[in-house]
Amino acid sequence: xxxELHKASTMRRQPKQARSQERVHHILDVAEQLFxxxxxxxxxxxxIATRAAIPVGSLYQFFPHKxxxxxxxxxxxxxxxxxxxxxxHTELAKADIATYVERMVNAFEDFAQQNPGYRAVLGQLIxxxxxxxxxxxxxxxxxxxxxxxxxxxxxxxQLDATQSRLIATTVxxxxxxxxxxxxxxxxxxxxxxxxxxxxxxTAYLQTYQI
Length: 210
Prior knowledge:
Elements: H1 7-10, H2 18-38, H3 45-52, H4 56-62, H5 66-91, H6 97-114, H7 117-128, H8 131-134, H9 139-155, H10 161-182, H11 187-206
Helix pairs in contact: 2-3, 5-6, 5-7, 5-9, 6-11, 9-10, 10-11
C-alpha cells in the first residue's frame, strides 16, 4: 500500500551473493507464514529462525529486529504491486479511462486476495508507523505517481505538470485508502466498496477529460 520504507532501516545489510539472497528470501517467506499463522505479537525472531532451520544469529545478520522483517515484507509486496502496475499500465495505454480504472483496481484487489499475508503484514506496518510515516509514499508508489502524472498529461495536454502530479496523488491516495478499507469488510460489502471506488476514480478522472 502507501507508506514510506527506508531500505537502510529495514535490513542490517543487503545480501550481494546469490546464496545470501536466497537465505533472505527464505527468512522472509517463513516470517510471512508465521505472521499469518500466529500473528505478529505471538511470533518471535527465534521461532522464525527455528522454522527457517538457521541459527538466530544468521537471522540477525540481516534483520536486527522483528519490525525490520515486517518492513522488508511490506517492501516486497510493494515491489510486486509495482510490477503489476507496469505490466497493466503498458497494456492499457490506449484504453478508455473507465476500462483502465476497472482493470487496474481489479488487479490490485485480486493481488491482495491472493496473498493472505498481505493484510497481516501491512496491517502491522500501519500499527508500527509514525504519523510522519503515514503521510508519505513508499518508493514504489512514488514511481507510480510519476508514471501516472505523465500518463494523464499525455491524455490531456492541457494539464500542466503540477496539475497532473496532484491528480495522480489524489488517485493513488484515495484508491489505496478505499481498497484497504474494503479488506476489513464482509465479502458482499467489500465487493460494493470496490465498485464504488471504481466509480469515484473514473468520474474524477473524466472531469479532467483524461
